[in-house]
Write a structure and sequence with these properties.
Two copies of one chain form a homodimer. Helix content of chain A is 25%, strand content 25%. Chain A is globular, with a radius of gyration of 20 Å. The first copy, chain A, is an alpha/beta fold and 263 residues long. Mean pLDDT of chain A is 93; it is low at 255-263. A five-stranded parallel beta sheet of chain A has the order 3-2-4-1-5, sandwiched between helices. Chain A has a five-stranded mixed beta sheet with strand order 7-8-11-9-10, with helices on both faces. In chain A, strands 6-13-12 form a three-stranded mixed beta sheet, with no helix packed on it. The longest helix of chain A is centred in the first third of the chain and has 13 residues, at 58-70. In chain A, helix 3 packs across helix 4 (88-98). The first copy, chain A, has two domains: 4-114, Tetrapyrrole methylase, N-terminal domain (Cobalt-precorrin-4 Transmethylase, domain 1); 117-248, 2-Layer Sandwich (Methyltransferase, Cobalt-precorrin-4 Transmethylase, Domain 2).
């Protein structure tokens, strides 16, 4: 079998943030798959077929790409950000595991990219400068109670939290609920960053506090970064502020022993 | 003031994983700073001065770069991986916050890159395909008890864990201690990936289990990814296995309520 599937991260949207490897893999492919908004960022080429799909069909998109690769074609799956972070790499693995055995013989590569939280962080300083976690706020594929548990665990342990998929039309209340839950674990003045379309012409970066976070709007193109109690803001005259999480941590900012400590 | 400081991520080592933006920022700089091993990856250029330093002097390296930028020069700080993840961006912010006020007027940009965990994950499938955290295992700048607490919280909440700085000559026992602690929270068969020098000629990717992880050697160039109880391996005849964390999570795999749940 000579087919190849490359699952490629093209970063959050600025073509200048593609890696050389991503550009080469895209140029070498004969067929491109992807969510239509990501595929639209790749210039059209006469030698490539394009298979755009909606954003709710990840598994069938993965199966279609694997099928075409198994027929001998050189296929590229275009993923926003990094394909391995809340994107297409896991869907391709899942489809491959449950698909026909010959798919396991395919030449399959994953091309990493700049995931949204890194692009947003770079526009504001270094909010992910110390221990952090990345959580999807979508309860389409996991129960909301599990999301709450992870938010509590992360805030209780002093991790900075990057939230992916914070809001969609079908999930309007989850982000507010997350802020309210976190407010019971973190100081009201904890810094929160809303980063939308980082690096694109319509980029919008907003710095606020946990107490005021509910007043800021977000959508599926937004990555929300919630600082730890140690995350700091540096004001700069005539320039946007910097936000960073110090490399050192002397202690947890919570007022006493956590439940885990008593184990 | 016309000086500029660009803090640039060049990924884990493969020049093909630089972004276009990183290449352009490096080419435009008159002076390059960085840890000597990272700086050595940037081709020499006659119009650039080079200021290599040891890996333990992050803050003074940041101060030196800010000073030179404040004198009007165009300076680039070369960071491995992404500058915002356990790298130079936080040190630059810290130096700037504590430095002379004129540093706040500098043109300061951060250029994101492919951080080690993303490059390692891409070589093996999608182990970071669902909620995860990134923790530095170095207790140089935080107490070991805090690291233990974060490991417990992450494992207890079902997060995949990416460990940076797992081992150094001065910190020989911490990685084994982390595996032993995690073994009290996670099944013995939990998948563990050791990714060293991802994308470089001396790359080494090893998949093992938590029970056997102590027998694998690691160093400062290794990123260790510890799966959740849901992380899966797909064997492929004649090819290396794939490891991925499914996009869906039905429940936590732990046997009952966690301490956090009782709050």
């Amino acid at each position: 079998m000579t087919g190849r599937l490359a699952v490629i991260g093209i970063g959050p949207g600025n073509p200048n943030q593609w890696t050389a490897e991503a550009s080469q893999e895209i140029a070498a492919a004969g067929a491109l798959f992807g969510y239509q908004s990501y595929l639209a960022r790749v210039p059209e080429s006469a030698h490539q077929t394009r298979h755009a799909s909606d954003n709710r069909v990840e598994l069938s998109r993965a199966e279609d790409a694997l099928k075409l690769a198994a027929s001998g074609q050189h296929v590229a799956m275009i993923s926003g950000g990094d394909p391995g972070v809340f994107a297409m790499a896991a869907a391709v693995c899942e489809a491959l595991e449950n698909g026909p055995p010959e798919w396991r013989a395919l030449d399959l590569v994953f091309v990493p990219g700049v995931t949204a939280m890194l692009a947003v962080a770079a526009r504001i300083g270094a909010p992910l400068g110390h221990d952090f976690c990345a959580l999807s706020l979508s309860d389409n594929l996991k129960p909301w109670a599990l999301i709450e548990r992870r938010l509590r665990a992360a805030a209780g342990a002093g991790l900075v939290i990057a939230l992916y998929n914070p809001v969609s039309r079908a999930r309007p209340w989850q982000l507010s609920a997350a802020f309210r839950l976190l407010a019971t674990h973190l100081p009201a003045q904890t810094l929160v960053i809303f980063g939308r379309a980082a690096g694109r012409p319509d980029e919008q970066i907003t710095v606020t506090t946990l107490a005021a976070a509910e007043t800021i709007s977000a959508d599926m193109a937004t990555c929300v970064i919630i600082g730890s109690a140690e995350t700091r803001k540096i004001d700069r005259p005539g320039q946007s502020p910097l936000v960073y999480s110090p490399r050192s941590a002397a202690k947890l900012a919570s007022d006493g022993r956590s439940p885990e400590d008593s184990q």
